[in-house]
Amino acid sequence: MTDYRIKGATGDWEVVIGLEVHAQVTSNAKLFSGAATAFGAEPNSQVSLIDAAMPGMLPVPNRECIRQAVRTGMAIDAAINKWSRFDRKNYFYADLPQGYQISQLYHPLVGEGSVEIEDGETVKTIGVERIHVEQDAGKLMHDQHPTRSYVDLNRSGVALMEIVSRPDMRSPSEAGAYLRKLRAILRYVGSCDGNMEEGSMRADVNVSVRKPGEEFGTRTETKNVNSVRFVMAAIEHEANRQVDVLESGGKIVQETRLFNPDTGTTRSMRSKEDAHDYRYFPDPDLLPLELDDAFLEECRASLPELPDAKRKRYEALGITPYNAEVLTAEVETARWFDTLLDEGAAPAAASNWVTGELFGALNRIGKDITESPVTPGQAAELLALVADGTLSGSLAKQVFEVMLETGDAPGKIVEERGLKQTSDTGAIEAVIADVLAKNPNQLEQYRGGKVALFGFFVGQTMKAMGGKANPQVVNDLLKKALG
Amino acid sequence: MTDLTDLGIREIRDGVRDGTFSAREVAESFNAAVSNARQLNAFLVETPDHALAAADAADAVRAAGETLKPLAGVPIGMKDLFCTKGVTSTAASHILEGFTPQYESAVSQRLWDAGAGMLGKLNMDQFAMGSSNETSAFGNVISPWRRNDGGNAPLAPGGSSGGSSAAVSARLCPGATGTDTGGSIRQPAAFTGISGIKPTYGRCSRWGTIAFASSLDQAGPMARDVRDCAIMLEAMSGFDPKDATSLDVPVPQWEQGLNASLAGKRVGIPREYRVDNMPEEIEALWQRGIEWVKDAGAEVVEVSLPHTKYALPAYYIIAPAEASSNLARYDGVRYGQRDLPEGANLQAMYAATRAAGFGEEVKRRILIGTYVLSAGFYDAYFTQASKVRTLIARDFENAWESCDVLLTPTAPSAAFGLGEKSDDPLAMYLNDVFTVPSSLAGLPAMSVPGGLDKHGLPLGLQFIGKALDEQGVLNAALAIEERAGFTARPQAWW
Amino acid sequence: MSVDTATVKKVASLARIAIDDAHAERLVPELNNILGWIEQLGEVDTSGVAPMTAVIPNTLRLRDDVVNADPLTGGGIRDAVLANAPQAEHGFFTVPKVIE
Ligand SMILES: [Mg+2]
Ligand SMILES: [Zn+2]
């Protein structure tokens, strides 16, 4: 592996990256109120008196949000703090009705954990410092009116997990791998839908540069970057910008920056520049959060098999590492494949078929695996028909096409269309005799030593059989007939 | 026929039930008293129709021969810190001028559910910050009491629940809600010769009550006597799932449990409450209180609460810190007043709105609170104060080893004149010296009238009880009430 | 610790309360008087003492994940939410345009 380096005029620079990922917790209601969390509702239609910070309103936490954050912590092998508390982060902004965000600074719910990533050939462990639970802010719209910004509080108070990594990443691609892996874990756990377009997951990107081996440099934080590609682009741009600043004798200012996806550049964010003095203190409206063993036990028991474990299990079943990786990357694929195995499909053959035939077909018809017209049960049946010799590879392809169109079971298709492969030696021998009789020249050449013509006779025989002959039987009988 | 406004809560409740008079007659009498007393500036909003509607409902229930609710026919005053649906609620601050809640506070809802009606919203110190009612944005309340020196100097009704204390003592309502953060029920009760109890923190839901300092705020009743306080507190208390700090415990039948005998009880006298420069009259009243509880059968023991001295400074860190954050929501965006100077951006709008909307004392406390929480000072101020708070609570725990309830004066002086202390914030803060420690520990505490000073002004005695032992506090106060024979009342001059 | 005019202005800015120089200067002795008095807390030996976290011993209750179970804490009440807004348009609160 070659280290990622920025080539500067003064030599090579190393990039140091830490990510704070805000993941929206999957829950029906908000963290501290009973308003709905659904995406895309009419402005301010999912706002309670609490979310609008009306005078005298009080927060009461949603158990499901706590549970999902705990399960997420467990999924990255993190320490779960049985005693945690909520703090207020105080600042003024139009998307923050209370004038403070209820968050966790001093005693977060989840402590140290880690995420294993693969970047090319290299496996690396990225430390996670903490996960805390906090409220999302509302949304401002600036393009609706010439002199006014519009405030929609539907997002205000939705539960977020802030997952804070250690500054352990050293390249844009490592950061990309970390984000993809984290997203997969969240989606396996079911604690976040990982939908980056809808803002369910977004990252604050902390970047600094240094000469290899030197102390950490001053970092900047690029806020709310909402795709893996943009995170990588933001790092690339920001690291290069910092190298330019430093090499031209400047200093890096610790500041908040914004990423512009259209230009791929970052710029300083004026509106949040002032006074980073958040005056955190324990929220006096909330008591300490104390979790008992039964709660933690339930959280642990409800965790599914996670991507790493699943991949190892697949490999142990004889599935290639490449296929195992592809099949576990998305939770829906893994779920579909697990059902296929449950239906009795042979793992290695099934993995090839899913990653080849099925993915190809889905791609072609523009559907994802949850919308597949073919069920795992039908696919298992198809694979079984191939395994027991009823269908040849090419017949299987034909049957699969019909399955995609009609949604019928393969057995039914084979019956109705007579696509069954034949192993009837008498019938095949008759056809072979005919083929040899019709191609005397080729027969003479073959017998004269041009053995490559064997394939020609196979093809002619299969063609004459309408593709339904068992290829193995054809091979054997041809060898015999050709002497 | 007696003037119905001379009657207390129990008398009205029983009279309506027995048909001695109708609830409508009661409501009309009090409505008239309210509108005749505007000079006192006790009410910010008058709601005669609300009182009449509740009265008519009570009369209808009685006419139908059905069981009346516990407060049926009783009209009360509502401190303007409680949000009331469809009735402006301002915390006596300009910043909330015109704010009409679309919801009812948990405590006021409980009172309406118990059959009470509302005479109006009561004036108070702005955002409950003050001890004299002079911080109200809508003019100070004038106490109905006057010194007997013929000077007619306007006096403070105490604060922050000064509209409540003035209204009850002037017979404008038989009872009123108050809130107490550091003494805001007890001190005004003492200043006006009425009773008031702050229950255990968590007894009364804080939902819908405009927050001052969340870890200290508690609602409670203010009324003419101990029994009326017990009746009203029963209606106001109870678990509320909407308030995470609400206590999920049953509400005792305090009225039924009243018992003025203190036989077998030990009353503690905290040594550290003998503060410097305490007026002799207060000292003498305290001594009389000791004699009265002995007479009621109690054993009197001296106890020590060694951290008493630090309660006020700890309070004046914790309360402003919480307030600075609680009041951040008043920003002119979603409700209340907005001040948008020509060309101002969002942050300038906030600063202008808050500068124009908040009064001086509110600003002072927000600044103190902001300062003590700011980077570099948090541990020295807020964390240290929170630790001292633990020690103060521990002092009380230790005291309960040797006594059941504590007896102290309520305030270090009788009512002072309006304007006498308003230039010296610190002197004003020192008024809370006896009430703040029990607030920091979340304990139930009550003020009951004990007598008059040489100017003919009321003085109060305070009982502090163990957590959840409101009954012990009410009983001790009843023992004093029965022996003090306090019948003085302000002569109507308004 | 004591404050000067610059500190008072900084704190007022953090608290979003506009004050002019004269006001800030007036506040300096007032706040220093209060802060000086508060500082006697430093005398108290609090080593080994935990800060108070719950006034009355009690732990945090959690709510079920149900939408609009109680109309007082649920959503779907846009009119009530906007009823007191100093300025609202098309279902939004509005503020002076923010440039991010
Ligand atoms: Mg961040
Ligand atoms: Zn965050």
Automatic annotation (TrEMBL), chain A:
Q: Relate the protein's function as given in its record.
A: Allows the formation of correctly charged Asn-tRNA(Asn) or Gln-tRNA(Gln) through the transamidation of misacylated Asp-tRNA(Asn) or Glu-tRNA(Gln) in organisms which lack either or both of asparaginyl-tRNA or glutaminyl-tRNA synthetases. The reaction takes place in the presence of glutamine and ATP through an activated phospho-Asp-tRNA(Asn) or phospho-Glu-tRNA(Gln).
Alphabetical keyword list: ATP-binding, Ligase, Nucleotide-binding, Protein biosynthesis, Transferase
**Residues covered by the Asn/Gln amidotransferase domain:** 335-482
Member of which family?
Answer: Belongs to the GatB/GatE family. GatB subfamily.
What gene is it encoded by? gatB
This entry's Enzyme Commission designation comes to 6.3.5.-
Q: GO biological process annotations for this chain's record?
A: glutaminyl-tRNAGln biosynthesis via transamidation; translation
Report whether Glycoprotein shows up as a keyword of the record: no
Q: What is this protein called?
A: Aspartyl/glutamyl-tRNA(Asn/Gln) amidotransferase subunit B
Answer whether the UniProt record assigns the keyword Ligase to this protein: yes
Catalyzed reactions per annotation? L-glutamyl-tRNA(Gln) + L-glutamine + ATP + H2O = L-glutaminyl-tRNA(Gln) + L-glutamate + ADP + phosphate + H(+); L-aspartyl-tRNA(Asn) + L-glutamine + ATP + H2O = L-asparaginyl-tRNA(Asn) + L-glutamate + ADP + phosphate + 2 H(+)
- Gene Ontology MF, one: transferase activity
Q: What Pfam families does this protein map onto?
A: GatB_N (PF02934), GatB_Yqey (PF02637)
Superkingdom is: Bacteria
Enzyme group, top EC level? ligase
Q: How does it assemble?
A: Heterotrimer of A, B and C subunits.
PROSITE patterns linked = GATB (PS01234)
Automatic annotation (TrEMBL), chain B:
Q: How does it associate, per the subunit comment?
A: Heterotrimer of A, B and C subunits.
Q: Which Pfam families match?
A: Amidase
Organism classification: Bacteria, Pseudomonadati, Pseudomonadota, Alphaproteobacteria, Sphingomonadales
Keyword field: ATP-binding, Ligase, Nucleotide-binding, Protein biosynthesis, Transferase
> Where are the compositionally biased (Low complexity) regions?
150-168
In this protein, the active site sits at: K79, S160, S184
Q: Does the keyword rRNA processing apply?
A: no
So what does this one do? Allows the formation of correctly charged Gln-tRNA(Gln) through the transamidation of misacylated Glu-tRNA(Gln) in organisms which lack glutaminyl-tRNA synthetase. The reaction takes place in the presence of glutamine and ATP through an activated gamma-phospho-Glu-tRNA(Gln).
Q: Some GO term, biological process aspect, for this entry: which one?
A: translation
Region Disordered, annotated ranges: 149-168
Enzyme Commission code(s) on record: 6.3.5.7
Name assigned to this protein: Glutamyl-tRNA(Gln) amidotransferase subunit A
InterPro entries noted in UniProt: Amidase, Amidase_CS, Amidase_dom, AS_sf, GatA
The organism of origin for this protein: Sphingomonas dokdonensis
Known catalytic reactions? L-glutamyl-tRNA(Gln) + L-glutamine + ATP + H2O = L-glutaminyl-tRNA(Gln) + L-glutamate + ADP + phosphate + H(+)
Q: What class of enzyme is it?
A: ligase
Automatic annotation (TrEMBL), chain C:
Q: What does this protein do?
A: Allows the formation of correctly charged Asn-tRNA(Asn) or Gln-tRNA(Gln) through the transamidation of misacylated Asp-tRNA(Asn) or Glu-tRNA(Gln) in organisms which lack either or both of asparaginyl-tRNA or glutaminyl-tRNA synthetases. The reaction takes place in the presence of glutamine and ATP through an activated phospho-Asp-tRNA(Asn) or phospho-Glu-tRNA(Gln).
A family per Pfam:
GatC
Q: Which domain of life is it from?
A: Bacteria
Spell out the protein name for this chain: Aspartyl/glutamyl-tRNA(Asn/Gln) amidotransferase subunit C
For the biological process aspect of GO, one term held by this record is: glutaminyl-tRNAGln biosynthesis via transamidation
InterPro entries for the chain: Asp/Glu-ADT_sf_sub_c (IPR036113), GatC (IPR003837)
Q: Spell out the reaction equation it catalyses.
A: L-aspartyl-tRNA(Asn) + L-glutamine + ATP + H2O = L-asparaginyl-tRNA(Asn) + L-glutamate + ADP + phosphate + 2 H(+); L-glutamyl-tRNA(Gln) + L-glutamine + ATP + H2O = L-glutaminyl-tRNA(Gln) + L-glutamate + ADP + phosphate + H(+)
Q: What is its EC number?
A: 6.3.5.-
> What would be an example GO MF term here?
glutaminyl-tRNA synthase (glutamine-hydrolyzing) activity
Assembly state and interactors? Heterotrimer of A, B and C subunits.
The text of the family note is: Belongs to the GatC family.
Enzyme class, UniProt record, top EC level:
ligase
What keywords appear on the UniProt entry? ATP-binding, Ligase, Nucleotide-binding, Protein biosynthesis, Transferase
What is this organism's lineage? Bacteria, Pseudomonadati, Pseudomonadota, Alphaproteobacteria, Sphingomonadales
